[in-house]
Design brief:
With 158 residues, the chain is an alpha/beta fold. 34% of the residues lie in helices and 14% in strands. It contains 5 helices and 6 strands, in the order E-E-E-E-H-H-E-H-H-E-H. The protein has a 4-stranded mixed β-sheet, with helices on one face. Helix 3 crosses helix 4. The model has no long low-confidence stretch (mean pLDDT 94).
Length: 158
Amino acid sequence: MKTANDVSYFTYETPIGPLTIVCEKDAIIKIDFGEVTELGIHKPSVLSNQTANELLQYLSGKSHIFTVPVRIQGSDFQQLVLQAIQDIPYGQTRTYSAIAKTIGHPNASRAVGTALAKNPIPIILPCHRVIPASGGVGSYKGGTKIKKWLLNLEHTNS
């Protein structure tokens, strides 16, 4: 059973605003936009510092790869969706319907959008790379301004 002592969190300043990184001892379990109070110990850890460093390298256009361990939590469907988006190459996008087809649920594009809205580890699990077939960028947990910024960053550096 996980206790509050098993979880730590810390907020880091980034070019897109504060990001709160939540870790268990061996994996990242959540990234929140903004300064967020979580259940657990409020202090940086080796893993949260490594994650912050990788995020800063990514946000500066210097790196396209994340090496930190993540623990994907959610329903079986959500886990399928989050696994699928990890295959979208840096600088490219896919539509919600394309992801639905990829995971074998061709009529579930809305459910894909719902699963992505619950993505606990945005940026590292690149839900910002999924856009509507009708055009535009669609919604994003961090706001459409940040989604556009991330897409532009990747487009510029790919």
